[in-house]
Structure formats: structure tokens, C-alpha cells
């Protein structure tokens, strides 16, 4: 059954999920702009959160730090990124997360993009994956590994060569897709044609216009994406087995409105 929730503070994600009418939650295990080791701050630690989430039937997802870029040809970025990604996978598994989300990363304009895809292959080959890793599409950057469909196809071909390929999933961000210039009417079908799966949807409206490259999320109906387009993406992704996390701004009541809007359209169970 499809789960719907929002990004919440990790201090008490279960109460926050209930407050928003959700049966899922996404958390960060530290400052997303930091290279610090991921840490669960829930009272009692990771084991306590895992136990409580199971008892309350709330599905937890973890988003890794935004600084991670395993595609980078720069050793001073790529090597710490691999280390932090592995630490994040281990920490997320300890608290019972259903998956860890990571951005696709990028190379610079002076780099060969093929190096970035191959760096992803090497990274996945070397990972221990106690839980699935979901690669998320990104909004901007002409040299991104997961902005355009052509790049996602090359990325999937690279990671598909590894023994860990079956543990690599896809997270579709609707704001990122729209801002990247992907047609929402066909994006689910095309992504499924490349990856064979959409495990999680970051369901967000977009402050920026189509193909703007702007990663600025908005609550449903307050951005540039037509509500009917968002609804169609949600229905198609739910049919493919995806869960949904709203990364939308505002207080709990604002996210609760987004959760309710999604629940009405995808026919998910009431939390």
C-alpha cells in the first residue's frame, strides 16, 4: 500500500508524521551541508526509533547529505563522498529506514561526463548496501548525472554493471523534473523505461518555471506546475509501487494539506 509523508525533523519523526496525516516520514541525520558523520538524535538512539516506527507503522526514509558527489573526478570530493555515503547507509539501516536517498551529483564543464558515470559504477561496486540506495534526479546543471533522461540512462547503464545493481533504486522529484525541463506528462513512463522502477517520489510543486534549472520547492497549487500534471505523475508513480514524501515548505499544517491532497488522488490508505 502506498505510503505518504513529509520531510520532518528527526527529533520525533513519528509524532511529526501523525501531525501531518502521514504514514511515512523522511529525515536527515545531521546538517545536510556538512561532512559530519550521520547520527540519530531520537531519544534512545537508532534502535529505539526502529522499534517505535515498527510499532506505530510509520515507514522511515533517510536523505543523505547534499554535499555528497560520488561522480566528481576530484579526489578531495569523491573519496569523502563515498565514505559519507557508506556511513549514511549504515546509519539509516540501523534505524530501520526503507531506503536512503542521494543526489546524482555532477562533473564540471571541463570534465568528461563518462568519468562521472564510471565513478558511480565504482562507488556502487564498493558499497555495502544493508538497505536500498535511491538515486534522485536533480533540477539544474548541464553536467549533472541525473538531470536529463539521457544522463539517467547512462547512469543506469553504469550502475547496472555491478553486483549491487538490484539494490539501486530511483527517487523521482517532481520539482526537479519540471525545473530540469522534463515533460511531466511522460516522465514516469520514460523513467520506468530506463530504470525499471520508481521507489520514492519527492512530491513538490516548483517555484521556478519549466526548464528554469531552479531547485525551489513550493506547496501544491502555489507553484508553476499544473495540479492536473502533478496528480497524473502521482497516480502513475503509485501504480509503479512508489511511496511519496512531500518536501514542501511551511508549518505542519501546510505539509498536512499536501499530504491530504496526494492521498485523495492516489487512493492511499488513511493514516
Key features of this structure:
41% helix, 271 residues, globular, TIM Barrel, alpha/beta
Counting DSSP E segments of at least 2 residues, the number of strands comes to: 10
CATH arch. level architecture: Alpha-Beta Barrel
Domain count: the total is: 1
Low-confidence stretches: none
CATH C-level: Alpha Beta
Structural class category: alpha/beta
* Span of the ends, CA to CA: 11 Å
- The SSE order reads EHEHEHEHEHEHHEEEHEH
The helix fraction, in percent, is: 40-55%
Which overall shape is indicated by the principal axes computed on the Cα atoms?
globular
Mean pLDDT: 97
Q: Largest sheet, if any?
A: 8 strands, parallel, barrel
If you had to describe this structure to a student in words, what would you say it looks like?
The chain has 271 residues and is of the alpha/beta class. The protein has one domain: Divalent-metal-dependent TIM barrel enzymes (TIM Barrel). The protein is 41% helix and 14% strand. The protein has 9 helices and 10 strands. An 8-stranded parallel beta barrel has the order 1-2-3-4-5-6-7-10, surrounded by 5 helices. A two-stranded antiparallel ribbon has the order 8-9. β1 (4-7), α1 and β2 form a beta-alpha-beta unit. The longest helix has 20 residues, at 75-94.
Amino acid at each position: 500500500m502506498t505510503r505518504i509523508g513529509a520531510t520532518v525533523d528527526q527529533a520525533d519523526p513519528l509524532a511529526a508524521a501523525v501531525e501531518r496525516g502521514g504514514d511515512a516520514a523522511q529525515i536527515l541525520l545531521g546538517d545536510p551541508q556538512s561532512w559530519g558523520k550521520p547520527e540519530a538524535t531520537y531519544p534512545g538512539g537508532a534502535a529505539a526509533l526502529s522499534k517505535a516506527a515498527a510499532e506505530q507503522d510509520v515507514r522511515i526514509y533517510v536523505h543523505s547529505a547534499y554535499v555528497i558527489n560520488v561522480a566528481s573526478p576530484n579526489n578531495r570530493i569523491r573519496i569523502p563522498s563515498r565514505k559519507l555515503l557508506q556511513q549514511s547507509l549504515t546509519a539509516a539501516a540501523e534505524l530501520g529506514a526503507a531506503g536512503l536517498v542521494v543526489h546524482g551529483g555532477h562533473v564540471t564543464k571541463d570534465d568528461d561526463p563518462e568519468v562521472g558515470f564510471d565513478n558511480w559504477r565504482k562507488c556502487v561496486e564498493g558499497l555495502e548496501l544493508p538497505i536500498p540506495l535511491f538515486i534522485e534526479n536533480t533540477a539544474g546543471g548541464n553536467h549533472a548525472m541525473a538531470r536529463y533522461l539521457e544522463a539517467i540512462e547512462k547512469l543506469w547503464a553504469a550502475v547496472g554493471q555491478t553486483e549491487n545493481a538490484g539494490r539501486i533504486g530511483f527517487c523521482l522529484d517532481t520539482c526537479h523534473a519540471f525545473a530540469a525541463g522534463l515533460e511531466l506528462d511522460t516522465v514516469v513512463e520514460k523513467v520506468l523505461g530506463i530504470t525499471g522502477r520508481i521507489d520514492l517520489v519527492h512530491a513538490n510543486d516548483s517555484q521556478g518555471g519549466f526548464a528554469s534549472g531552479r531547485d525551489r520547492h513550493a506547496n501544491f497549487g502555489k507553484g508553476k506546475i499544473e495540479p492536473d500534471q502533478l496528480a497524473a505523475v502521482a497516480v502513475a508513480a503509485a501504480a509503479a509501487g512508489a511511496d511519496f514524501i512531500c518536501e514542501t515548505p511551511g508549518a505542519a499544517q501546510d505539509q498536512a494539506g499536501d499530504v491530504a491532497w496526494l492521498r485523495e488522488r492516489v487512493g492511499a490508505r488513511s493514516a
